[in-house]
Structure formats: C-alpha cells, structure tokens
C-alpha cells in the first residue's frame, strides 16, 4: 500500500487519507445498475486498486443498495484482510419515530459489515420527526458502549451542525464531521456558512459527489471519441444534458491539462 497524505478526522484520533471512497453504487440496482454494468467481482478489483493506492477510507450507508453496500464492503475487507477505516450512516426514515431506533440500525450495520465497531457513524440527514438532541444523545450512548469510535452528520446546515456539536459537547464527545454535497459545480458550502462553521468548530467537511456522479471525470465529454451511455436516473438529470455538457467543456479541458 502506498503512503498517502493523512488528515485527522475532526477532534478524533482517527487518521484518514485525504481522499476517501464512496460506495453508494456498490450493490445499488435502482440508480447505478449493479448486476448489469458491473458485478461484485468488479467491485473487489476496484477495492484492491484503492488499497494499492493507499486509499483505505470507505464511506457507506445502510440505505445504499438496501444494505448491499455494507455487505459487499465487509466481504471485500475479509477477502483482502487489510485494515480499513469504515464510515456508515443511520437513515432517519419515515417509519423511525424514535431516536432509539438507531440502536438496532447500528447493530444491523455491524452485522452486515461483519465488524465489532464503526469508525465513523453519521446521521444521514436532518429529520424533523426525531429531535436532534435525542439523536445526539443516542450517538453518545453508542460511543460509550464502544460500538462507535467517532460520530458525524450529513447534509446538516451550519445552524444544525452547531446545535449537534453543542449537544454532543454535553457528553464530552466531539462532532467530528459533516458530509455534504461539494464539488467544482456545487460550491454551496463556501457560501452557506457550512465550511466556515466546520473550520471554527474543528469539524471535518467530507465532500460527497465531488465528481458530480461522474460528470466531472470527463467520461461523458461531448468531445470524447466514445461517449458511454448515461444510465439510470442520471439520464433524466439536466446536469447530464448535451447542452450542459457542452457548457462544461472549458472546465474539463482545463482539468485534463
């Protein structure tokens, strides 16, 4: 495994490579065409390539592929046998009306992954039907039980993040991360206060969709000799329209030089 630049996750003792690997597509048939365009064998090869490049931080969630992503990540980890840093998420879905549902959800994630603890456990998005304080108290409890090393949130505004940080502080537990949409085409965290609040509170901003679901890779450039078929819901996205991709050509041309 190559040595890569390491960063500390917020106020925790967890060291991570500067680049992490998102696993939304692992096992997801509805959005990413798992089983048609690629298989678990392809994922295992990608997993090994990541480790060879020194990238051992993997982010998943219980709703990715309805649990398939966590199971596949666990399979890869056991097959290769090298230690990795795992982040996953609790989804406050409509039928979950109590913060205590987090305890069973965490146990289910632990079982699917085949591990005894999660390095980073996150609330997937803010949810009005479960009080934030109750969710933060539940996160503090699973940390005390040794099932989770560090806790974070996802899709939280600057104000929501401050409130979560303050509630966890009552338990002497830091909020170490906020995972938000952030890319060259989506720079809202720079203007909506999230990035500033992260810097102020020593919270790591984890960017999801930094390549805009593949749009910024150049794979779908209109100037490419062969343009791959845009599959799944992305084909209906205005961002992937021919007009928008033509507008992006100067950006993609600059990034390739």
TrEMBL record:
InterPro entries reported in the protein's UniProt record: AKR (IPR020471), AKR_Detox_Biosynth (IPR050523), Aldo/ket_reductase_CS (IPR018170), NAD(P)_OxRdtase_dom_sf (IPR036812), NADP_OxRdtase_dom (IPR023210)
Ranges where the NADP-dependent oxidoreductase domain occurs: 19-226
CDD domains (UniProt xref): AKR_AtPLR-like (cd19093)
Sorted UniProt keywords: Oxidoreductase
Annotated signal peptide: none
GO MF: oxidoreductase activity
PROSITE patterns attached to this UniProt entry: ALDOKETO_REDUCTASE_2
Protein name (database record): NADP-dependent oxidoreductase domain-containing protein
Lineage, top ranks: Bacteria, Bacillati, Chloroflexota, Ktedonobacteria, Ktedonobacterales
């Amino acid at each position: 495994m190559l040595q890569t630049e390491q960063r500390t996750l917020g106020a925790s003792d967890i060291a991570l490579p500067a680049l992490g690997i998102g696993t939304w597509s692992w096992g997801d048939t509805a959005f990413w065409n798992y089983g048609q365009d690629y298989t678990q064998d392809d994922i295992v090869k990608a997993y090994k390539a990541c480790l060879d490049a020194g990238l051992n931080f993997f982010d998943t969630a219980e709703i990715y592929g309805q649990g398939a992503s966590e199971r596949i990540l666990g399979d890869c980890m056991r097959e290769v046998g090298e230690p990795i840093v795992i982040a996953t998420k609790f989804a406050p879905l409509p039928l979950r009306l109590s913060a205590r549902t987090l305890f069973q959800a965490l146990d289910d994630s632990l079982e699917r992954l085949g591990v005894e603890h999660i390095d980073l456990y996150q609330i997937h998005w803010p949810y009005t039907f479960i009080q934030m304080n109750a969710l933060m108290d539940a996160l503090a409890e699973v940390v005390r039980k040794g099932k989770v090393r560090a806790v974070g949130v996802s899709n939280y505004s600057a104000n929501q993040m401050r409130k979560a940080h303050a509630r966890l502080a009552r338990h002497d537990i830091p909020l170490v991360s906020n995972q938000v949409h952030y890319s060259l085409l989506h720079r809202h965290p720079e203007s909506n206060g999230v990035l500033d609040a992260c810097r102020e509170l020593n919270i790591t901003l984890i960017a999801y969709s930094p390549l805009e679901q593949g749009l910024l890779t150049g794979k779908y450039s209109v100037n490419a000799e062969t343009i791959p078929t845009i599959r799944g819901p992305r084909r209906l996205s205005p961002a992937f329209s021919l007009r928008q991709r033509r507008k992006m050509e100067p950006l993609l041309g600059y990034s390739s030089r």
